[in-house]
Amino acid sequence: MAELFVKQAKQYADARPTYPQQLFQFIASKTPSHNLVWDVGTGSGQAARSLAVIYENVIATDASEKQLEFAAELPNVRYQHTPPTMSMTELEQMVSPQGSIDLVTIAQALHWFDLPTFYQQVKWVLKKPNGVIAAWSYYLPRVSDAVDTVFDQLYSTDVRPYWDPARKLVDDNYRSIDFPFEPVNGADHTGPFEFVTETVMNLGDFLTYIKSWSAYQTAKEKGVELLGEDVIQKFKLAWGEDGQKVAKFPIYLRIGRAWDA
Asked: β-pairing, 193-202 with 244-257?
């Protein structure tokens, strides 16, 4: 998975949306203490930056050294490069001891993981019984009827053959992803709970966002340019004269609580 984002790490850091404060406030309200977070698959640290405002310390890990190069340095965030799969010994050495973490977060990355192995590690590091795991994905941005029409055509027809099969979990808004945790306090299910993040973009930003997709890089490696001149021209006509537009990304959150085991 990490190799899918090496070549477009800068585009990822520049163009991927941040997440709304309401999302983090909701998650934080479900963790009794706010001492330590493990942000897994942190990429270039989009979620870690917001978590660092609420929690005393954040351990932000990723299997891609290249993406970590673009993460913002913060005094209470420790960035850690990890192998794609860690042993329990490596988990303790690189992340944290057993039962020490208040919250595990995974932003736009859970669909890439070996879930049985990862969930075993999550249950090992989380505090019992109130440690929380929160995983979310965002889906296709909505900009305007004209832009959305061009974008949806590109996504559903041209790009689809180049997505990894794991992308289907994102297309399903994490509804079908395995998530063996109990509902958090105040909830009767583990989600998905829906939020929205808004990002101001010009057309260049929007095209850079598309170039940050793993499918875009996979297509390029196969000699296919998904953003050819004809496609870019369609986007220019749809975008119109407005320099900037608001792109709304729906976010789907799965959140659960660890139990004594």
From this structure: antiparallel
